[in-house]
Amino acid sequence: MKRYTIRFTLSAVLLLLMMNSCKKNFLDVVPDNVSTIDHAFSNRNEAEKFLFTCYDGLPREGHPEMNAGLNTGDELWIYWPMPTGEDYSSLSPYNIARGLQNKDEPELNYWDGYDGKSMWNGIRNCNIFLENIDRVKDVEPYMRDRWIAEAKFLKAYFHWYLFRMYGPIPIVDKNLPIYATPEEVKVSRQSADSVVNYIVNLLDEAAAGEGSVGLPDKIINQSTELGRITKPIALAIKARLLVTAASPLFNGNPDFANIKNPDGRVLFNATYDQKKWERAAEACKLAITAAKNADIDLYRFISPTKPVDDFTKTEMSIRNAVCEKWNSELIWGTTTKPNDTWTLQLYASPQLDPNVPNSGLKGQLAPTMKMAELFYTENGVPITEDKTWDYANRFQLRTATAADLGIQNGYQSVGLHFDREPRFYADMAFDGSTWYMENGNFNIQAKSGQHSGKKQSRIYSVTGYYTKKLVNWKMVASATNITVERYPWPVVRLGDLYLLYAEALNETDNKALALEYVNMIRDRAGLKSVESSWTNFAKNPNKYTDKNGLREIIQQERLIEMAFEGSRFWDLRRWKRAGEFLNQPIYGWDVIQTSYPDYNRRILLFNQSFNSPRDYFWPIKDNSILVNPNLVQNGGW
């Protein structure tokens, strides 16, 4: 598919204008032998190609090293140092996780450009499209309305992506003309509340209209249009934005009260506003209604080939909510680069079959031990709160029996891996676990020298855990080939939206309805309700009846349900809990050992450090601040 490529970064244009008042029209530099924007909007086909250029600016969230939330925190870890070669595409996320972010050459710098994508360039392309689409004479009015709505959504999304990373940002509602003066291009950051309201208004405009007006409720032409924007997508991103804006990082946070523009304008409102949660709850409700109207529902696995037991059915309902292509739960799946989830799956999967080794299965996307401890017991409460679960002896070896689901009969493993909830076994694999695939059930044996374990200085799990959740069950490996079913990365799915709604409901004192939405997620995960689980098994059986207690429950439920989907990194920040979690050690198993006792020995991999409050936001590159003195740096940088 032909796309126009028009490169733009805020700092680059500012620098050129300030240095020599250059009058060159940057829109004239267009590859594919297109010399002017006039040609780009000369007819319907060319205009649609330009709209696809706007889509092409979306970050590659399905790639493990382009998604800013996947390898930048504490849920996944990697061996270090990583040798050059096929082990990685970019070290940026791993550097952030190891505390190496900086302002000279910021990691994952989507402000100036990362992976060939600058969010400002994406915004600029959307503005070009919106400013010129009315010139196209041969496009049907209903299609023009839809394209305009898509461009407005993408423009809003690029602003949102920057806002989540940097906090208050400049708003680029219209492109400046090339003859703009140097003073006009010295843009300033707008207040956080102003940015939120601006993005919300854009999303409302994008989602406006009913029936065939504007964005469709669902994609009808699935052979050519899957991945394009719908009303449920626009409303779901609005809900996510408003929940973020209502959360402690932005709502009543005094940490950044002194960050001001050179003109004295305060960028962060330090006063708490309960109405922000009310607004967020209403946005979540509207998004859920739109999703339901589009027949989006929580995914439930039905085996297409052979009957499966209840344990396997529950596991596959959890895994395929992420990995099954265009499944019933998916609100927005990105297809920016379909091969990204191919790469992701090879990073995640260990060697499954001892008789068919294939070095393409890297198994290097390694969950940390703190993630193993995050999941509930089989009784649906945290391992620290279950009065029937032996937390004190969780690192002692046990031998599995046929009654221990998810673990190989007769295999030895630590107590931590026994009697856990279905999402633990669906999301993670470990030495002694089982791994169900369409072509068979495989045994993971990961001690040194075993088929799933470490065999060399690279391409292995440094923690001894594997990210089963992200591997599509149809993957098949031979000695010479790997067949991988690519899937669209789930930017938003219904389970995510339910938990955002539950969070907002609890904050607005509607605990009963909040529990209803949490319990729908738990039911799909094979668990009893919050009320039943806490009443019967928790050391504090009344925890869910208190707003603060239910907040803690909802947050852990979200961290579990959304594990390994790039959500935890952002949730810990918006809750202002990153300083708590990201200053904890990273542990794994002693993966170079061969015996049960030696392998199942907890070892320290890294002492992670989070500088609070500085690290809650990305630094703006120093050069951008030098070029434009109206841009103020984020606190601590």
UniProtKB/TrEMBL annotation:
The keyword Membrane applies. Keywords: Cell outer membrane, Membrane, Signal. Residues 101-207 form the SusD-like N-terminal domain. Residues 347-637 form the RagB/SusD domain. InterPro entries: SusD-like_N, SusD_RagB_dom, TPR-like_helical_dom_sf. Pfam families: SusD-like_3, SusD_RagB. It comes from the Bacteria. It is found in: Cell outer membrane. The keyword Signal applies. Residues 1-23 form the signal peptide. GO terms for cellular component: cell outer membrane. Belongs to the SusD family. This is Putative outer membrane starch-binding protein. It comes from Sphingobacterium detergens.
